[in-house]
Amino acid sequence: MARGVHLKSPAEIAKEHHVPPIYFSIYSASTYVFLGPPEVLAAEEPKRIRTPESLTSPPEWVTFPSSLAYKSFRATVVYDAVYGGNASRITDGERITKSLGACQLLAILSCPEYEGEYLNLLENIMKKPVLPRGLLPPEKLERRRSSEEKEWIEIFDWLDKQKPKSVVFVGFGSECKLSKEQVHEIAYGLELSELPFLWALRKPDWADGDHDALPPGFSDCTHDRGVVQFGWAPQSEILGHTSIGGSLFHSGWGSVIETLQFGHSLILLPFIIDQPLNARVLVDKGLAVEVERREDGSFSREGVAQALRLAMVSEEGESLRIKAREAERVFGDLELHDSYLGRFVEYLKKGAKEQRK
């Protein structure tokens, strides 16, 4: 690509064609608060240019108690991704700034009942309207509507036999590429926890076959209280089962919403993008426990087991379980979130009418 070429953001192109641009976010307000004001994100003010070290503590513009920050082992990776150069000769920070600056509104996947303080702060630092469009929780499905395969019928039959709120659902989706060591430490952590579990595991690239992904002897040691299912899983239906009481996952925002929709305890092991920030806010609010990490980002089976037992059965974790059940009233309130979405639609209609004048 030739030097000096000005790359326009989609929002800038929309404005040129007299189309009112709106920034439609799939992340929480706290994530954008962490990125900061446009002048900081684009590194336009020398005195406020961020460094990897600055990403390991809450930003100066967060004036209320918060631990919103990255751990040191992740900070350098995030810094390079947001502020580092790439083939387009424009940093992701500059790209985001262009989009945010050209848009007339930020539509955030959130609600003030969960993070009102961050929504208010985001509007202040962006100096433009921020509209929560609700959490858009998925509709609760009737059991087994989307899982007629024999193997899943058998798994749901197994869930039926478990005690209410006793089973941990484990799932890290397809974006998190877990190493062999990470998969094995999670497995051994589940074994040490002595809790019943259902683990939806996608075969890692490093494994020759499904069961090559698990440590030797793991299935034999846990077959009486745990199920590992490889491939796709009907996550909403699993989370909606009465035997599920908690979820061990990466703390991606969509999965957070889906899990708290059912009032389950959150056991978080974040890896990429917004996941570590989501985890910090959830822990701050007493809604989750995060698996402890070493300085290099690794974690131990003992740490996994300790977090699982704290969230699921220990007396110390009772307040967490109570708050998770209380959160269901917000995250699972379809009428509430439909009302926020309705306000967003009304905003769009109003803008369309003004454009026709």
**Class by SSE composition:** alpha/beta
Strand order of the largest sheet: 6-5-4-7-8-9
Anisotropy-based shape? globular
Helix content: 40-55%
Mean pLDDT: 90
Poorly predicted tracts of residues? 1-6
What Rg do the Cα atoms give?
22 Å
Largest sheet: 6 strands, parallel
Oligomer: single chain
Describe the 3D structure.
With 357 residues, the protein is an alpha/beta fold. It is built from 15 helices and 9 strands. The strands form 2 sheets. Strands 6-5-4-7-8-9 form a 6-stranded parallel sheet, sandwiched between helices. Strands 1-2-3 form a 3-stranded parallel sheet, with helices on both faces. The radius of gyration is 22 Å and the shape is globular.
Which labels suit this protein?
357 residues; alpha/beta; six-stranded parallel β-sheet; 15 helices; globular; disordered N terminus
SSE inventory with pairings:
Blueprint: H1 10-16, E1 23-24, H2 29-35, H3 38-41, H4 72-83, H5 92-102, E2 106-108, H6 112-126, E3 130-132, H7 150-160, E4 167-171, H8 180-193, E5 197-201, H9 218-222, E6 226-230, H10 235-239, E7 244-249, H11 253-260, E8 265-268, H12 275-284, E9 288-290, H13 301-312, H14 318-331, H15 334-356
Parallel strand pairs: 1-2, 2-3, 4-5, 4-7, 5-6, 7-8, 8-9
Briefly say what this structure is.
With 357 residues, the chain is an alpha/beta fold.
